[in-house]
Amino acid sequence: MHRQTRKTMFNVFTGVAVAAAAVVMFLPAAQAAPGTVTSNVNVRSGPGTNYAVVSTLRRGQQVDVQQCQTSWCYVASRDATGWVSASFLAANGQQVNPSQPGLSFGFTIGGPNGPQINIGVGNQQQPRPPVVRPQPVYTPEVCFYEGSRLRGDSFCLSQGESSRDLRDWSDRISSFDNPDGLNVQVCSEANFRDCRTYTTSASSLGDFDDYIISVRVR
């Protein structure tokens, strides 16, 4: 074997050994793409609890962690794709740290006239997932009017709200709009006493007109 050939092969093997050592030394710092769900968790359409739940993942399921933003990570599995809180994800036996950047490096062993080896270690660039804006949440409500046929000044109460004493609005309500068919209780006394219940709108209230002190919407 020629001396030059032996020297080239020695350089190649030395380079491979250095590369292997670099892999062992640097890989633990890299953010691994494969991950494991550590507890049952909701999958959301965006990075936050104000985004809609699109699916759920069970403890122990395997996912592909594609990108992290603040404390949320975009994951993909055969069952669901979306955003999951990083506190419910583990990689290489440790909780995923979304603030830790992935590692990517590479180098070439060999010269232009001899054998050449290209070595690369690290995460591949993942496509940026679409950001879904949270949709406004519609809350049913009932609006009460000072005049009959839904005229004049008004105020509204959402489903689940009530007033035991209308104070400035006592003995002023003459009609109300109830487009969602909620259960509306209008009472002639405070603390929901002497009441009538409606499930539709009312353009007038008969003998309860201007005679209401407490209301409840359910």
TrEMBL record:
Signal peptide: 1-32
Name of the protein this chain belongs to: Bacterial SH3 domain protein
Pfam family, one: Inhibitor_I36
Gene3D superfamilies: Crystallins, SH3 Domains
Domain SH3b: 32-93
PROSITE patterns in the record: SH3B (PS51781), TAT (PS51318)
Keywords: Signal
InterPro entries (alphabetical): Cell_Wall_Dynamics_Protein (IPR052354), G_crystallin-like (IPR011024), SH3-like_bac-type (IPR003646), TAT_signal (IPR006311)
